[in-house]
Write a structure and sequence with these properties.
Blueprint: H1 2-24, H2 26-36, H3 39-43, E1 46-47, E2 63-67, E3 85-88, E4 97-99, E5 104-107, E6 116-120, E7 131-136, E8 158-160, E9 165-168, E10 183-192, E11 195-196, E12 205-206, H4 209-212
Antiparallel strand pairs: 1-2, 2-3, 3-10, 4-9, 5-6, 5-8, 6-7, 7-10, 10-11, 10-12
The structure holds zinc ion (ZN).
Zinc ion binds next to loops.
Amino acid sequence: MRLFRYIIGAALLLSLIFLVRAWRNPRNQQFLTWATGDDDVRATLIAERDPCATAPFILPSEGFVGLLWNDPRGPYSQSRRHQGIDIFTDEAPGTQPVYAVADGFIYREDDWVATVIQRIPSDPLQPNQQIWVYYTHMADVQGNDFIEPQFERGVTEVPIKQGELIGYIGNYDGNVPSRIWTHVHVSVVKDSRGTYLNEYFIDNTLDPSLYFGMALDYESAEKTLPCP
Ligand SMILES: [Zn+2]
């Protein structure tokens, strides 16, 4: 009986330590501020699109970079970490523009409601290596897309320049009936033999930090910004 009480006590103590650590995590504090703070405080969380002039990519949209690459926080977990970054906006779905992060070519599969992927023939960090950039949630909850007409479903190899408009941020998440916060999800995806790997798996993506010149890996995001 006494052992049982010790076990319960230890479990409660561990839970408390976990909760306090989660509460003190500055990244979680930022989320609370974004969800509940007043407009002036929230404005301090909004990242500029070009935070590092010498970085090869620009951010696709202005907003709060809330979920990071390699992020284990909900709806993700230690075993299923976030494979891109999420940029949240205050604007209504279909209002906040999404721009190309670099020069390249747009592809969109026939059944992609809210998504495009961009081929970048030469990775600026590993020249001669091709990479891809994936953008999603550019539709409303009913699945009406906010993607520019030249990137209609089924297109391949549509040229685009850095900073050109792709579409607008939405809140569509086809598989989940619940409403998601309005955001764009962006990931840097590895190539295999000329085509993109499935970006659902983090092993098929790259740490976006050096591309954007911001600390975007959850595990090292408290360190100095790696503006190259
Ligand atoms: Zn995401």
